[in-house]
Design brief:
Length: about 450
């Protein structure tokens, strides 16, 4: 049985909406402007300030959720899945549609975890197979009577820069390399990422590298700040807390490299939309067509190089526009604070909105193919769980998809605007001053929204 080829894109189609595109631009912009005015009138004191700590759940819930056995069971499961996916990618059928590795990596893992961490918090802390292996090695090492000491001190100035570079490398594989869905490519990528992660843990310590260099932990950790649930350290013990949604985003993000990381989160998805535009694909084809027949490898390198330039440019533009808006807010308020660390978290709901708008159809449609592939992960004709004949029910209503994308994108930007306003009121203590400093942020949100709509339309 042949399945849909997993691609790192959502599903659109030929749309024929009643409302013209230009009206969506005006409507989205007007929604943001009206929201901005409403915030200035109604949101005159910080509503999220100091609420990021939340309140602890009851002791019975603490015992159930923080039961140490979960870490062992989930860790063993995640390590087993990593081994299975790697083996399937390495020795299974090379056809991406009949091998579980591409669907698992690009859809079930990369997209499927997003709604879970946004609702329940950073589940990746318990599900990471690399962390599980590191913890197991450290536990076995401790049984010999010795402590696992890092080989080197982690330079504070590096912050999250390693994670940002690794996320950019992951995005390059996903969006720039033409053969990203091939199982053998993924087998090599898993080996390389695993080696870097475990080497980082060994060199700098598990917790230090996980918090700064493990790209997926930083990615899911930032998205988890939206969630109403969190696990926090209090008086030397871990506590599960509940808090208002978005409250976790009020904390300053002062770790170096955070802006770069968030810019990669946003810029990679923006480039995904750009890369599907006909004119971009024509440029890439014109460049690689000279080598496709005589040297396919060279053609792949040319396409990857061009796409990488586009990806890096998108990331840099996202970061530059944000920093310009922050500088404008600083000039208006005559403030000397590091406002970038204050407002960068307001981009995270936008990154979530971009991800949902671009990929929700891919998750819904291609994710269903994980059911039959679970019974035949290597593409050998097996039926381990009796699901190999499962027929997915696909959601492919182009107009419905488009309206959903528009709504999600606008809501994400309104949430970002509200969060930035709350931070401004908390800093300056005056709604009037907060509004004056947020004109540039409003312009930024309008620009991001219209650009996002244009990319979705052309995609």
């Amino acid at each position: 049985m042949t399945f849909v080829l997993p691609l790192a894109h959502g599903i659109g189609g030929i749309r024929d909406p009643v409302i013209p595109l230009w009206l969506f631009f005006y409507g989205a912009s007007l929604t943001l402007i009206l929201s901005f005015v409403a915030l200035g009138v109604l949101w005159r004191k910080p509503l999220l300030e100091g609420r990021d700590q939340g309140r602890p759940l009851g002791e019975p819930w603490q015992r159930v959720i923080l039961w140490v056995g979960w870490r062992v069971l989930l860790g063993a499961l995640s390590v087993g899945l990593l081994a299975l996916v790697w083996l399937a990618a390495l020795v299974g059928q090379p056809d991406a549609g009949n091998n579980i590795a591409p669907t698992f990596v690009w859809v079930i893992f990369w997209l499927g975890l997003v709604p879970l961490v946004v609702v329940f918090g950073n589940l990746w802390a318990a599900l990471s197979p690399w962390r599980a292996v590191g913890d197991a090695v450290a536990w076995l090492w401790s049984k010999t009577g010795r402590d696992w000491e890092p080989a080197a001190a982690y330079p504070e100035r590096l912050g999250r820069w390693p994670a940002a570079l690794l996320l950019l490398a992951f995005a390059t594989l996903e969006l720039a390399y033409p053969r990203s869905a091939e199982p053998r490519t993924l087998a090599l990528a898993i080996v390389v990422y695993s080696w870097i992660t475990w080497a980082g843990m060994l060199l700098f310590g598990r917790r230090t590298w996980i918090e700064n260099g493990e790209a997926f932990n930083v990615y899911f950790g930032l998205l988890a700040l939206i969630a109403p649930f969190a696990v926090q350290e209090r008086e030397g013990r871990r506590v599960v807390t509940i808090r208002p949604p978005l409250a976790g985003l009020t904390a300053r993000q002062e770790t170096p490299g955070t802006i770069a990381f968030v810019a990669v989160m946003l810029g990679s998805i923006a480039f995904d939309g750009l890369s599907r535009a006909t004119w971009w694909q024509d440029r890439v084809y014109d460049a690689e067509s000279k080598y496709i027949v005589d040297s396919p490898r060279t053609a792949d390198l040319v396409a990857t190089g061009i796409n990488l330039v586009g990806l890096v440019t998108a990331v840099c533009v996202i970061a530059a526009v944000f920093l310009i808006a922050v500088r404008a807010a600083r000039a208006v308020s005559d403030s000397r604070e590091d406002l970038a660390s204050v407002f960068v978290a307001s981009l995270i709901p936008i990154a979530l909105a971009y991800a949902v708008a671009h990929y929700f159809t891919l998750l819904i449609n291609q994710g269903q193919y994980g059911i039959p592939l679970a019974s035949d992960p290597f593409g050998r004709g097996w039926d381990l769980f009796g699901t190999s004949s499962f027929q997915p029910s696909l959601f492919n209503s182009p107009n419905g998809i488009w309206y959903t994308q528009v709504a999600v994108l606008v809501i994400g930007h309104v949430l970002g605007l509200a969060l930035a306003h709350d931070r401004a009121v908390a800093i300056w203590g005056s709604a009037r001053t907060a509004i004056r400093t947020q004109y540039a942020m409003l312009a930024l949100m309008v620009l991001y929204t219209c650009t996002g709509l244009l990319l979705l339309w052309n995609g």
